[in-house]
Amino acid sequence: MRKQLFSTMIIMFALSGLTLSGTAQARMKCWTNNEGVRECGNKIPPEYAQKEHQELGKGGLVREKTARAKSDEELAAARRLEKEKAEQAKLDAEKKKQDQILLATFSNVGDIERARDERVTALEATIKLTQARNDKIQLDLDKRIQTAADAERAGKEPPEDLLKDIESLKRQTSNNNAFIEGKRAEQEEIKAAHAIDIEHFKELKGIK
């Protein structure tokens, strides 16, 4: 209590002297020491320079208040926050751009459905063509396998070229089947994507 009273008396004495000099007014600053006591003077001690302090004006009124300097952790957190805000703003801008493209591309839900059906149908044609090619390859493969089996039953070793052809045809059928599976999956992705577009289009247009 004595320390606080003594500090208060010093502050009052210092403030009373401010009326004698405008320059002194501008230099008078106040801070809180490590014991929580408010102190004032013309110069802030180095150990308190980075902490919150005030500059007093005429009549001891606070003219300017300086916040304490942020720690390295606080500065790093602030930078992370700014980065996150910038990334979110970028995402929001991209979303807005995509919304504008959606509205500019389609006039109604029927347009989206037709675009979906056209893409799915085009892939279906590719699938059928690949499947037809695979069926022919499978027939050829079956014949060659039969020829190799006949040779083995006759006690002969199947020709090396025949065995190589069989392996090649097997790879072709396997690759074609994988291609067809991929196109089927692509069809489902198209349907799912357009379903999302339809719902979002309705939301943007206010359609229930």
Question: Your description of this structure?
Answer:
The chain has 208 residues and is of the alpha+beta class. It folds into three domains: 2-66, no CATH class; 71-104; 106-205, Methane Monooxygenase Hydroxylase, Chain G, domain 1, CATH 1.20.58. Helix content is 70%, strand content 8%. The chain is built from five helices and four strands, in the order H-H-E-E-E-E-H-H-H. It has helices spanning 2-16, 22-27, 72-105, 109-153, 160-205, and strands spanning 29-32, 38-41, 53-56, 62-66. It has a four-stranded antiparallel β-sheet with strand order 2-1-3-4. Helix 4 runs antiparallel to helix 5 (160-205). It is elongated, with a radius of gyration of 41 Å. Residues 1-11 and 17-26 have low confidence and may be disordered.
Structural Rg:
41 Å
Output the CATH topology of the largest domain.
Answer: Methane Monooxygenase Hydroxylase, Chain G, domain 1
Please tell me the overall pLDDT: 85
Helical percentage = over 70%
The ordered H/E elements are HHEEEEHHH
Number of helices: 5
Given helix and strand content, the structural type is alpha+beta
- What's the end-to-end separation, in Å? 71 Å
Task: Tell me the overall shape.
Answer: elongated
Uncertain runs: 1-11, 17-26
Assembly level:
single chain
CATH class of the largest domain: Mainly Alpha
Strands ordered across the widest β-sheet: 2-1-3-4
Major sheet characteristics: 4 strands, antiparallel
Please give the CATH architecture of the largest domain. Answer: Up-down Bundle
**Beta fraction:** 5-15%
The number of distinct β-strands equals: 4
* Domain count: 3
